[in-house]
Design a protein that fits this description.
73% of the residues lie in helices and 0% in strands. The chain is mainly alpha-helical and 373 residues long. It starts with 16 loop residues before the first helix and ends in a 16-residue tail after the last helix. The relative contact order is 0.16.
């Protein structure tokens, strides 16, 4: 399971763009590309195909949401390990803010401008400010979760017994009874970021320990995933249970949520790595890895902006299922096409590339990779 992941520690100073392209682990780019497509598909199920609470009971929606964001967060933690260990705190925080928060603010301004143009002003200054804050937090919650997780791990790396401290923080954050705003989502995904970081530090040890038991472990995790899938319901999603334990049913929901997401994430990454291993020469696989996997931050921001705006649009109530599926497919393809077009237009433009993509133009010095990019 871990033997196909490249170690991310150590010095990596590419001498050219071509060298960096060969050095980059495209298997993880393929996994990220597939995951961002699933993010878009999940939102299409929610916003286009259903547009009511019935999406909570969709087996397709459930299959995606059991693992896509937890696995995304684990990969982010894994890829962030080098910068977390090598950079001083101030520089690490500043670089990550420019990579994640700056483009998020850019797309948030675009979204709010579009809302004001279409819907007019809020009824009061207070409600307008609250709505702005809710849009900034709720629409791009995964960016905030990644950034906060990065800072927490960076603080933990400065302490002794680093691995124990990080493991303890993952447990404490997951169990903290915080329910305001997007805190439940951060509490849910933070342990997966921790696991990704710890895996990057001890990959060889994990690989050696599991080498002779890998197939048995995969079968076990697949069984756990299937059991949790059957037990998964509307109250199992973190959006609904808020990750809080207060009685036996909530304990069951939170336990199924964490265990099911962990098992499903492990099965999913193994499946994705196997797909890349056997299909890495295929054009579609390389498109997913090179074009989508290396533009996940932009794709996440564009799709988040589009789907938040769709909250304010009434449409499709009289459409049949076939029409909804067709519209969903067209919209999903349009989101990807628009994002990739924007990327190709601005990625070589100084400052604009940083502002829109979170990617400064390449230079002779190595640049840190954004956690999602």
């Amino acid at each position: 399971m871990f033997d196909r992941l490249r170690p991310v520690t150590g010095t990596n100073v590419p001498s050219s763009r071509r060298t960096e392209a060969y050095d980059r682990d495209l298997s993880l780019d393929f996994a990220k590309g597939a995951l961002i497509v699933l993010v878009i598909v999940g939102h299409l199920i929610q916003y286009v195909i259903y547009r009511d609470d019935a999406f909570w009971y969709s087996p397709y929606y459930k299959s995606i949401y059991m693992f896509h964001m937890p696995l995304f967060m684990a990969i982010s933690g894994y890829l962030s390990a080098r910068s977390l260990l090598q950079k001083p705190f101030t520089r690490a925080a500043s670089d990550r803010a420019k990579q994640l928060l700056l483009p998020m603010l850019f797309w948030w301004v675009i979204m709010e401008t579009a809302k004001l143009a279409a819907l007019g002003r809020a009824t009061s200054l207070t409600s307008g400010l609250l709505e702005f804050v809710d849009d900034l937090a709720g629409t791009y919650w995964f960016i905030w979760a990644t950034f906060i997780s990065y800072l927490l791990i960076k603080i933990s790396t400065r302490l002794t017994r680093r691995s124990w401290v990080i493991t303890g923080s993952a447990i404490l954050v997951a169990l903290a009874p915080l329910t305001f705003s997007i805190s439940p989502l951060i509490r849910f995904t933070y342990p997966f970021f921790c696991f990704g970081f710890l895996l990057a530090q001890s990959r060889e040890r994990w690989t050696s320990a599991l080498r002779h038991h890998k197939q048995v472990l995969i079968v076990f995790l697949l069984i756990v995933t299937c059991v949790c899938f059957l037990a998964w319901g509307k109250s199992t999603y973190v959006y609904n249970n808020l990750g809080v334990i207060h009685d036996f049913p909530s304990t069951k929901d939170v336990l199924v949520m964490f265990v099911g997401s962990a098992a499903a994430s492990a099965v999913a990454i193994e499946l994705l790595l196997q797909c890349w291993r056997f299909g890495h020469l295929n054009r579609m696989a390389r498109f997913i890895a090179v074009e989508l996997g290396q533009a996940t931050l932009l794709l996440y921001l564009v799709q988040g902006t589009v789907f938040r705006l769709m909250d304010f649009i009434q449409f499709g109530e009289l459409w049949d299922l076939t029409t909804r599926v067709i519209i969903a497919g067209v919209l999903g393809a349009a989101i990807i096409a628009i994002a990739l077009t924007i990327r190709s237009l601005v990625r070589g433009v100084p400052y604009l590339s940083q502002l829109v993509l979170g990617m400064p133009p390449r230079s002779g010095l190595p640049q840190a990779k954004p956690a999602m990019n």
